[in-house]
Design a protein that fits this description.
It is an enzyme of class 1 (oxidoreductase). The chain is mainly α. It folds into 2 domains: 3-243, Heme oxygenase-like (Heme Oxygenase, Chain A, Up-down Bundle); 251-286, no CATH class. It contains 13 helices and 2 strands; from the N terminus they run ββααααααααααααα. β1 (6-9) and β2 (12-16) form a beta hairpin. The two termini are 22 Å apart.
């Protein structure tokens, strides 16, 4: 089994990309995917997420979002550690592959400085999310499956897209500082790992009532995430807009050719001149920002297709 196409638990190679996967509508992974589609769509189409995907993310807001994730993942992973031997969660215990709190701590140290722990606060919406995770870990640990599935599988599906958008919009280093959260160092093949995780979920011996409870909890987890997004969106309204470099050339860089000016080309294209319509389109596609936006949306469409088909 090749190292780059397998994942392990306790040092044992357990699945490869070539392993077949046969799913049933009654499998837990399918029950959760189908039953949370509406919640998933609401979160995905929230103003905060849509702005993020468009690269309209302010550095201060990104810092607050990273802080919220740190509190959420710290709670999830502390409760997982307490319940790692629970028969309904033990098969899904992958700390080396999945746990994010340590990576988020590195991101916060980069974003806030070495005294980051004294700089951050848990917001109201985030605290409600954290409180529910603590309650579940204490009173009904099987429901941790819903919280882990909601967060980890979502991050594996769309993390790379968000990482690239953040690096571009916030001019973060290409070496990964500030976005360690999105890098799953212990997973070399996300597709194979998600297949493994689903298979482990589907092997849990759960009755219909428990599956229904897990579905309700997964929808609740999406609601908590949406509440955090809404809170961030409101906070963002009071943060001054940061100037975005659209990378369009100034007139002085056109070598005296006014037709290369994007505004002139746009005006001529609007007048119905077919030549300028073509030239304006080509000019836009040469702009790095437009290329990133197009690439991002192509990646988003591909990621969404993967989320529902995988």
């Amino acid at each position: 089994m090749a190292a780059d196409s397998s994942v392990s638990n306790g040092g044992e190679n357990i699945i490869s990309e070539s392993d077949d996967e046969i799913l049933s509508p009654n499998d837990l992974s399918e029950v959760l995917s189908a039953g949370t589609k509406e919640s998933h769509d609401k979160a995905e189409n929230s103003p905060f997420v849509k702005d993020f995907l468009r690269g309209r993310i302010k550095r201060e807001l990104f810092k607050l979002g990273t802080t919220a994730l740190y509190y959420v993942y710290s709670a999830i992973e502390e409760e997982i550690e307490k319940n790692k031997d629970h028969p309904m969660f033990a098969p899904l215990y992958f700390p080396l592959e999945l746990h994010r709190a340590e990576a988020l701590a590195k991101d916060l140290a980069y974003l806030y400085g070495e005294d980051w722990e004294s700089e951050i606060l848990c917001s109201e919406a985030t605290q409600s999310y954290v409180n529910r995770i603590r309650e579940v870990g204490r009173d009904d640990p099987v429901l941790l499956v819903a919280h882990a599935w909601t967060r980890y599988m979502g991050d594996l599906s769309g993390g790379q897209i968000l990482k690239k958008v953040a690096q571009r919009a916030l001019k973060l280093p290409a070496t990964g500082e500030g976005v360690n959260f999105y890098h799953f160092e212990g997973i070399h093949n996300p597709t194979a790992f998600k297949r493994l995780y689903r298979s482990r979920m589907n092997e849990l011996e759960l009755d219909t009532e428990t599956k229904t409870k897990l579905l309700d909890e997964a929808n609740l987890a999406f609601k908590f995430n949406l509440d955090v997004f809404s809170e961030l969106q409101e906070i963002g309204k009071n943060i001054k807009d940061e100037v975005q470099d659209l990378s369009f050339s100034a007139h002085g860089d056109m070598g005296g050719d006014i037709s290369k000016c994007p505004y002139y080309a746009a005006k001529m294209a609007a007048s119905g001149n077919a030549t300028y319509v073509c030239n304006y389109t080509k000019m836009l596609l040469r702009q790095s920002t437009v290329q990133v936006i197009l690439a991002t949306w192509v990646a988003v469409v591909a990621g969404l297709a993967a989320w529902y088909l995988m």
